[in-house]
Amino acid sequence: MDKPLAVNVQADKSRKRKEGTKVLYLLPAALLIAGVIGYPVVRALILSLYNYNSLSAGKSFVGLGNYSKILSDPSFHKAMANSAIWVFGCVFLQVVFGMLGAVLLNQNFKGRGLIRGLTLIPWATPSVLAAMMWMWILDGNYGLLNDLLLRIGLIVHPIPWISQMGTAMGSLILIDLWQGIPYFAVMLLAAMQTISGDLLEAAKLDGAGPWRAFWKVVFPLMLPTLMITVILRIVWTASYMDLMMVVTQGGPAYSTLTIPLIAYYRAYTDLRYGEATAMACVQALILLIVVVIYLRLMASKGALDNGK
Amino acid sequence: MFEQANLKPPVTFDDFLNAAKVLTVPSKNQYGFAYRGGSGGQDQWYAFMLAGGARMVDENGNVVINNEKAVEVNQWYTDLYKKYKVTPTTAPSDSFAQLSAGFQAGTTAMMAHHVGSYETLYKALGDKLGVVQMPQADPSNPATMGTMTGNVIFKSSKNKEAAWKFLSWLSGPEATDILSQSTNGQLPVLNTLTSKPEYANKNDGWKVALASEKFAHVWPPFKGVGTIAGHTWKDNNDLALFGKITSKEMLDNIAKALSE
Fold first, then answer.
1. Interchain CB distance below 8 Å, A271 and B105
2. What pLDDT score does B72 carry?
3. Is B136 in contact with B142 (CB distance < 8 Å)?
4. Architecture of domain B13-148+216-259 in this structure
5. What distance in Å separates residue A269's CA from the closest CA in chain B?
6. Section A77-106 average pLDDT
7. By CB count within 10 A, which of A100, A156, B197, B242 is most buried?
């Protein structure tokens, strides 16, 4: 009678020890995350409740004053609308063209490996460099794009792409597409290549054409990868401001001013840190809501259980 | 360009506008004036505002950048793009890189800049480059913009005396001489230095700039200047260029930022 009990206690002890070891293993990463991400987030939340200007000593508590101030500020409204257009435009078009790119790269052709490698160059280009390069491609006086369009007779006068309200945001989205499509294409290509040929063969035997096989077999299996890539891109694109900062500085006339950029100006040129952090918190909250809704939607469609 | 069009270098605002109109030939992608609407454009704007007779603050320290005179000059300046169309269509976003490239390529006939760009432009254009003082609305009472940078001591500084001592040395002949001869050299403002031949005879750009120092104004030492240079000027200038706000509204917003 005693023996089995002793064994049980032993097992229990070792389980506990295992649990303890797990926690110990997780501790460094958890501490790092708490220090590098948790602490700044809490600090930002607290700072957003204060009036703080680094030029004048001290700060004063204003409660939700900063939030009500920015939410009634027309330039912040404009920035929110611009951010929505920017994120939706960039991510949606990247998914469409990234998928197309992945299908193309998955074909058998000569020099496929080389092309696949070269595809990643835009993604690997530093954003400021890409911005500078595109600034000259889109330049309204000597830009390559205008030159091309003039030569093929599509336009009569060069278009100042980044200097007018109607085309500035579209131009920035174009630059982001150039950078982001390769990322999508390569991620989706990787997902596509994990799909076994047997499944496609079975679909073919069952009488499915390539179009049907793609939507019924390939696409559902790619969905988890697509989903995580989309979430990552939404978050990155929403916080990405290098392009606007270099190419348009949020102009002309606020047409490319997004939330991170207005928050940056509010903090570093107006020195109103409280309002700036309040803006950042609003963006974080909106992103959180979007991501949660998105995850729920995908989970209900079965995208989270690996397409099985 | 001026010789070909039989024009004299502009002395007055009227000369300037006339030359800009004559030298604007959109079909040849050629424009009279390189309007800087992109980053850094507030300095060029302020120089033209001063030359037109407007001031940021009056003798008593009151903000007057939105008075009647200023509204008139600002209207004239923004009309270079809006009404007279003597600037490239890219003006709202053009900053130094575009200005410099356009001027070197002959896309623009006139540009306003400080001595820092002279060597580069001279290398590219040689004798085709001419330098004149800022054209004036009233040449008998000239004004221009004189500085973009300055040094400060924080009120909360723990070492005010040491800081004052350092800044005093920095503004003295020895340090100014070193700074003025560095790559990003600025104009020396001390008479003992400006008369030195290495400055006085350096090049045409320096000659004109040193002569202009006598009637140059600086940005007023107000907290709001940083905000204006950061984005308020550009935001409002864009809106004015696109006709979304009036000259008066643009200046009211700038005056408000300045007073904050």
1. no
2. 95
3. yes
4. 3-Layer(aba) Sandwich (3.40)
5. 5
6. 94
7. B242
CB within 8 A of B227, min separation 6: which ones? A269, A270, B257, B260
Do the chains contact at B90 and A140, CB–CB below 8 Å? yes
Domain positions in chain B are 13-148+216-259, 160-214
3-state secondary structure of B33: strand
A106-156 pLDDT, tens digit each: 888 888 888 888 888 998 899 999 999 999 999 988 889 999 999 999 988
Alpha-helical runs (H) found in chain A: 2-33, 39-47, 65-71, 74-105, 112-119, 121-124, 127-137, 144-151, 165-193, 197-205, 210-213, 219-239, 242-243, 259-268, 273-300
Alpha carbon distance, N-terminus to C-terminus of chain B: 45
Q: Report CA torsion sign: B89, B90, B92, B94.
A: negative
Does the predicted TM-score (pTM) go above 0.95?
A: no
Whether A253 has its CB under 8 Å from any CB of chain B: the answer is yes
Both structure tokens of B231? 């984005």
Question: Residue with structure tokens 């007073």?
Answer: B259
Tokens standing for A184? 């999508």
User: CA-to-CA distance for B18 and B16, rounded, in angstroms?
Assistant: 5
Mention the CATH class of domain A69-305. Answer: mainly alpha
Q: Compare B209 and A70 and report the one with higher pLDDT.
A: A70
Domain ranges of chain A: 2-47, 69-305
Check if A163 contacts B (Cβ < 8 Å): yes
**A160 with B223: Cβ contact below 8 A:** no
pLDDT class of B176 with cuts at 50, 70, 90? confident
DSSP 8-state code for residue A245: I
ipTM, two decimals = 0.83
